Amino acid sequence: MILEGGYKRYNFISFLRAFSITTIVLMHLIQSHIPNVPTWLYKGASLGGTGVHAFFFCSGFGLFLSYKNKRTTFFQFVSKRFWKIYIPYIIVILILYFIPYIEVDGNRLSALLSHVFLYKMFVPEYYSSFGVFWFISTIIQFYLVFIPLCKIKEKIGNKAFCIVSVLISVIWWIVTGFSGLAEERVIGSFFFQYLWEFALGMLMADYLLRGKKIKINNWVLLVVAVLGIAIEGVLASSNTVLGRVFNDIPALFGYGALALLLYQISFIYKVLYRLESISYEWYLVHGLVFVSLSELSTALDLGLNKYVVAIVLFVVSIVTAYGYHSLIRFVRNMYGNKKKKKE
Prior knowledge:
mainly alpha, 15 helices, two-stranded antiparallel ribbon
C-alpha cells in the first residue's frame, strides 16, 4: 500500500483512530461484561488494549497536522481542547457520580473533584475512579506539552527530536520498570511512557505534509503484524521486568500493521470510518452503557444468551455515542453562533 502526502486529512489515520477505540471497547466488553468467556477469547481480547498506543500515535499525527495547517498559541490550543475534550468528559463523570451502582473507592465527592480539577492524574486512589478514564489524563498531559513539543521540534530538527523523544521514553521505562514504580498507574501512564509514539505521529505527519510517500509491501505488513503481536504477547506475559518494560514497541508496530492490512478491506474500512467521528464520545459512554444495561439485564433476569446480551450492549453503546456526539455538537454550534452575534 502507498501512503501519499500533501493532504489536509488522512483517511488511514481516521481509520486507525476508529479501529483503536473499537478494539478497546471490545476488550472491556469481553473481559468485564461477558461471564465465563473461553480463555482464548479473554486473552485475545487483551490485544484491544494495544489500541491506546495507536491512539497516541494518531493524536500526535492529527494535532501536528492541525498545528501546521493553522498555527495557534498555547492558550488558543488549550482553550479549543477544553471545549472539545474536557466538557464532554466532565458531563459523563457528573452522570456517573449520581448513579449509585457505579462503585468508587474512597470518598465519592473527592473522586468527583479529582476529575473536575484534573488532579486525579496524580492521585492513585482516584486515577481509575468512575471507570476506565486513565487514558484521558494522559491525553490531557500531552495537550499541555504539545505546543512546547512543536517549538522544540522546530528548534532541534526532526532527527534530534526523534532521538530525544525515544530516549526519554526508554529511560522512563527502565527506571520505572526496574524500580517497580511502573505498577502504579499514575507512573505507568505518565506521558513520558508514550512520548515516543506521540512524537512518531508528529514526525510522520511532518514527512507526509512535505508531499512525500510511504510505500509498504503488504507481505511486510503481514510479517510485522504477526511478529509484533506475537512478541508483544510473549513479553507482556513474561515474568521478567525487561519483557514488560519493552513490550510497547512490538505492540505499536504489530497492532499498526494489522490495522493497515484491515484498512485495505473495503467493508471494514467503510464501517470503521463511519465510527471515527464518534470515537471519543464512544470511549466516554461505553462503560456507562455496559454497566447500566448489565444491571438491568440481571434485575429483569431475562435469561438471554450471554453473547446476545453482549451484542445488544455493543450496539446500544454505539447508538448512545452517536446521540451524545450530536448533543455536544448542537450545544457547541449554538454557543459558537451566540459568540459570533456578540462579536
